Amino acid sequence: MLPGRVSIPLSMQSTSGVLLSLVSVLFGIAVSAPVMAASDASKNGTHLSAEQVVENLEGRDRERAQTLRHLESTRTYRLVYHGFPSDREGEMVVEATYDRPATKTFKIVSHSGSKLIMDRVFKRLLDSEKEALEPEVHQKTMLNRDNYDISMTGYEAAPDGGQYVLTVIPKSKSKYVYRGKVWVDATDFAVTRIDAEPAQNPSFWTRKNTIHHEYMKVGDFWVPRRNESDSDIRLGGHATLTIEYKNYRIIPNGKPGSGKSSAAGPR
User: How many Å apart are CA 228 and CA 163, to the nearest integer?
Assistant: First the structure.
């Protein structure tokens, strides 16, 4: 948590803890999510069990970890806080770069609004993402059967392809894991959506924390599209963080340095 000061609302400190804990994990899931071969089950219209979906997801994740060489994107962070002792807003635009195996850099392009939000929330979010790439942390937060109990909630059919809906419950509590629902593309076995809350409340001062994360398909890769994080504060305040991702440039292994994939819309 952030160091306490009279001039810093407790609600803002609590919100920072929630965002630091979860955004880095969710981004880490998507940053290496290229498409592999379609599954025979989805082609034939049959549905897999939860065990089979997770097995495919884990297998594809291992392949994806070897596929992505370089990724660039532009993100816009916005945080709006309403509550005691005063309302605050802030916005930051960042150019983010990822290089295999675990190097992530950020360049702040612009920022406006509350200096408190900039220094105590946005900048710490970026630091937290770098921390989540450390092997020990990454291993404990991956979406797999070692870290989560996973069950099948349902299957959602759509003209452009179906999705499996999984319920995930962490086997241990920490600031980096979550519980909720995960949508998995039935063809690519990539995470397409997450609705979750922290497995461990990061602060006494927060009553409810939720995250909604969406992914989109850019070329042959599934990448983050939008994140929205909401925190209700015990003193009556409310904070909403949104992160929008665009201008993707993706270079997979085996491609020349000029390879480019620009962000269109979701498929």
Answer: 21
Q: Which two tokens stand for residue 176?
A: 């980096």
Percentages of the chain per state (helix, strand, coil), in multiples of 5 = 25, 40, 35
> pLDDT tens for residues 148-171?
999 999 999 988 789 999 999 999
In the predicted structure, residue 18 carries a pLDDT above the cut 50 = no
Closest CA to 11 of 237, 242, 240, 241: 237
- Between CA 225 and CA 24 the distance in angstroms is 14
Name every residue whose Cβ is closer than 8 Å to that of residue 120 and which is 6 or more positions away in sequence. 2, 8, 12, 13, 16
Q: If pLDDT is split at 50, 70 and 90, which confidence band does 255 have?
A: low
CA-based torsion, 36, 40, 44, 45: positive or negative:
negative
> Cis ω on the peptide bond leading into residue 252 (within 30° of 0)?
no
Distance in angstroms between the alpha carbons of the first and the last residue of the chain:
39
Tell me how far apart the alpha carbons of residues 216 and 263 are, in angstroms, rounded to a whole number. Answer: 9
To 10 degrees, what angle do helices 10-30 and 123-132 make?
40
* Structure confidence by residue, pLDDT tens digits, 99-116: 988 788 999 999 999 999
- Highest mean pLDDT among 18-27, 65-74, 149-158, 229-238 belongs to 149-158
Structure tokens given for 123: 């900048």
**Of residues 105 and 137, more confidently modeled:** 105
Evaluate the omega torsion of the peptide bond into residue 85 and state whether it is cis, within 30 degrees of 0: yes
Over the range 51-86, which residues count as b (16 or more CB within 10 Å of their CB) and which as e? eebbebbeebbeebeebbbbbbbbbebbbbbebeee
